[in-house]
């Protein structure tokens, strides 16, 4: 309970400092919307030239694209600070004050920033899911909706876990931003059904960088009933817990190696 | 000539600068290879799903041509677009250093052209030559980019170089216009993101303009953006005959002159309202 209160206090402060740059935020949200319109336009133009993409109709591909934005957006909302840890903060020795406070450092990182830009992604994602969902030819079951919600929430936890683990490497190497960037960029593979990829890539997308596990498989379950939704939900939740536990363990081990710059 | 000489230090400085910022080249390489691979898988799936199968031609592109297009566009973007114009203008306004340029006998825009060209030359020498050599070597070697005659290829390559320089200048001019908007708003980050997105989409970097719907395609192919990525690449791929090459290069040149004029007018207006904060 104490932590909830603490979190809200910190977030309020972070939001206040963001409001200083109102025009900046509006233009960045606008550019984000235009950027999404451009990528969607591209995909739509490509799909117009072919009858279906490996059996997926344009509405289904659009549903994939929209749904893939949700876990990414949820992660974006809460854990943006880890980018700074990976790129700058450890290198600058700027983490000292966090280690002196009687609250876990990892919690302070979550409380440091709340990134409202993520709402833009959620709005675009939900809009796309709604529009494309209405054009789907399938009957929607309760189980399918359930596994989609689980996929979005616990998928976000898996993405956050990667961010925690990789950014904590900065405690050892001073800067781990580029590595985090590389791994994070693989989320572009999550925008399309994994059926379009070769076997090896599919394996990676399910077992190693499991974007396919919480995006592609749940959507396939909705569209074609490919998997048992409850079993799949269980696997996703299990994977999320495992990844998160591993990530906090790595963070704890790496954080012991933090040394201040002495400035 | 002596009038141009005073811009040489800017070109030199930005050439050195661009190397300093490229230390994360390995990151760029890995991220890019992963992205290009993703695009290749997507296009493979698209062509496999098309009515004529993998060997069909969609909007004038075969599967092989599309792969060549994706690879060359990626190299082209990396080598040609290295401008921090928006950031620099924003910084000059924020820190008040813009005043220094107003009292010196050099043109503010001229400084940026010199910097753009300097960075472009350095990137071309250090990364352009090996990347294009490797890329073209492999693509021609595996038969994805057929070469009818070596002279034809050389001629197109020279035209491609001309188009590249124009692409660099066009990009610089558009960045400059976006940069001047920083006089009116503080949102440099958003403006830069907006600029990058618009250019990526309308220049055919995301996908060739031939895929756009009818009227939209006609409009976009006469806009300055087409000359910033798609047209140079299609020249290099020898998809254009000499007449078309000449036409697209002329259009780009015309746009460049026009955009410089617009930039100048905007600057003359913006400079009247500039308030230097503590400068």
**Overall SS class of chain A:** mainly alpha
From the N-terminal CA to the C-terminal CA of chain B, the straight-line distance is: 34 Å
Helix count from the secondary structure assignment of chain A: 13
Let me know the average pLDDT of chain B.
Answer: 88
Largest sheet of chain B: 2 strands, antiparallel
Shape of chain A: globular
Summed up, the helix count of chain B is 12
Assembly annotation:
heterodimer
Which H/E pattern describes the elements of chain B? HHHEEHHHHHHHHH
The proportion of residues forming helix of chain B, as a percent range, comes to over 70%
Low-confidence spans of chain A? none
Question: Which residues of chain B form runs of ≥5 with pLDDT under 50?
Answer: none
Number of strands of chain A: 0
Instruction: Provide mean pLDDT of chain A, rounded.
Output: 89
Features:
heterodimer; A: 263 residues; mainly alpha; 13 helices; 75% helix; globular; B: 279 residues; 2 strands
Question: Layout of SSEs?
Answer:
The complex is a heterodimer of chains A (263) and B (279).
Chain A: H1 2-19, H2 22-48, H3 58-78, H4 81-89, H5 96-100, H6 105-112, H7 117-134, H8 142-168, H9 170-173, H10 177-185, H11 199-208, H12 211-224, H13 229-255
Helix pairs in contact in A: 1-6, 2-7, 3-7, 3-8, 3-12, 4-8, 8-10, 8-12, 8-13, 11-12, 12-13
Chain B: H1 2-5, H2 8-21, H3 25-49, E1 57-58, E2 61-62, H4 63-80, H5 85-95, H6 98-103, H7 108-141, H8 150-180, H9 188-202, H10 214-221, H11 230-236, H12 242-273
Helix pairs in contact in B: 2-7, 3-4, 4-7, 5-8, 7-8, 8-9, 8-11, 8-12
């Amino acid at each position: 309970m104490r932590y909830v209160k603490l979190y809200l206090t910190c977030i309020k402060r972070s939001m206040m400092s963001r409001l200083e740059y109102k025009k900046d935020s509006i233009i960045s949200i606008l550019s984000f919307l235009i950027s999404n319109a451009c990528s969607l336009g591209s995909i739509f133009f490509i799909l117009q030239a072919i009858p279906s993409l490996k059996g997926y109709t344009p509405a289904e591909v659009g549903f994939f694209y929209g749904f893939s934005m949700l876990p990414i957006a949820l992660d974006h909302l809460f854990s943006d600070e880890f980018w700074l840890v990976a790129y700058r903060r450890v290198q600058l020795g700027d983490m000292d004050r966090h280690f002196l406070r009687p609250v876990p450092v990892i919690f302070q990182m979550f409380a440091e920033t709340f990134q409202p830009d993520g709402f833009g992604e959620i709005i675009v994602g939900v809009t796309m899911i709604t529009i494309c969902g209405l054009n789907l030819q399938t009957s929607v079951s309760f189980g399918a909706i359930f596994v989609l919600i689980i996929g979005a929430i616990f998928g976000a936890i898996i993405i956050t876990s990667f961010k925690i683990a990789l950014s904590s490497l900065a405690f050892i190497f001073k800067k781990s931003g580029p590595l985090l960037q590389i791994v994070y960029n693989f989320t572009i593979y999550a925008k399309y059904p994994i059926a379009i990829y070769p076997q090896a890539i599919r394996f990676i997308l399910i077992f190693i960088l499991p974007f396919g596990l919480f995006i592609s498989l749940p959507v396939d379950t909705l569209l074609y009933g490919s998997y048992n939704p409850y079993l799949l939900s269980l696997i996703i939740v299990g994977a999320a817990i495992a990844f998160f536990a591993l990530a906090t363990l790595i963070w704890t081990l790496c954080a012991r190696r933090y040394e201040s710059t002495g400035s | 000539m002596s009038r141009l000489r005073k811009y040489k230090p800017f070109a030199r400085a930005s050439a050195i600068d661009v190397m300093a910022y490229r230390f994360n080249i390995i990151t760029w390489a890995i991220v890019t290879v992963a992205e290009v691979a993703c695009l290749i898988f997507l296009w493979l799936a698209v062509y496999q799903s098309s009515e004529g199968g993998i060997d069909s031609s969609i909007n004038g592109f075969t599967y092989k041509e599309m792969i060549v297009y994706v690879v060359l566009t990626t190299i082209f973007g990396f080598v040609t677009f290295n401008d921090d114009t928006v950031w620099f203008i924003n910084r000059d306004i924020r820190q008040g250093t813009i005043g220094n340029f107003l009292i010196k006998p050099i043109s503010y825009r001229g400084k940026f052209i010199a910097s753009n060209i300097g960075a472009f030359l350095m990137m071309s020498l250090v990364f352009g030559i090996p990347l294009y050599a490797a890329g073209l070597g492999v693509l021609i070697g595996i038969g994805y980019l057929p070469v009818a005659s070596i002279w034809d290829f050389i001629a197109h390559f020279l035209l491609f170089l001309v188009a590249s320089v124009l692409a660099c200048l066009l990009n610089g001019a558009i960045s400059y216009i976006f940069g001047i908007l920083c006089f009116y708003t503080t949102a440099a980050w958003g403006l830069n993101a907006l600029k990058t997105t618009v250019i990526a989409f309308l220049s055919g970097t995301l996908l060739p303009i031939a895929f756009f719907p009818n009227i939209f395609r006609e409009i976009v192919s006469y806009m300055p953006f087409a000359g910033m990525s798609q047209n140079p690449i299609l020249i290099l791929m020898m998809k254009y005959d000499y007449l078309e090459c000449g036409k697209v290069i002329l259009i780009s040149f015309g746009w460049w002159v026009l955009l410089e004029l617009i930039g100048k007018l905007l600057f003359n207006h913006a400079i009247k309202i500039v308030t230097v904060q503590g400068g």
